[in-house]
Amino acid sequence: MLATQELGGITGRGTDIETLAFILFGYLAGSLPFGYWVVRWTKGVDIRTVGSGNIGATNVWRTFGPRYGIPVILLDVAKGFVPALAATLAAGHVAGALAGGAAMLGHWRPLFLGFAKGGKMVATCGGALLGLAPLVGLVGAIVWIAVFALTRYASVASIVAALSLPIGALLLEEPWPVLVFASAAALGVLILHRGNLARLRAGTETRVRLRRRPATTT
Asked: Rounded to whole angstroms, how far apart are CA atoms 57 and 212?
């Protein structure tokens, strides 16, 4: 009983039902396939049929340019940020981490696309960390921007930024749920970038151009 009280005092104060509600909210928010919707509604194209076939912001940017890629980035960040922040403020770091993780899972396997393959969770992960532990999320964002500016590889920036998350959480002495979330999120991002790692080794990975003419489609 004492251990449970201490755990709640340090990392959370919500009930089990409240935490479950935030997990459900996180998954539903993460399942909103903004990359698919934005391209479908504005271009009449299924983003899964062009470029890398991914619904994430990188593929949208590469294929149709920053005019479409930037809104998708912001929306994908928001769908991780809002559930994680709301859960953290209302029920503590455990609930925030679980809600953020659920949002990432929703982005990976979105309910609203029939659990088909979604995105690689990077922007949603960043948003979740900004809601759960803003300083760690800021570290990840700075690392991503710096590596991308140097290499123009979104995959390299994502992988290096993911690896920086548990290190940042540890150095900043964040509560254990933040460290666990950061470590699990980093592992998930790395696993979903296996194909990118193979293309990097083969020299066939595509760089992102900041200014690119939108691709023509037929």
From this structure: 14
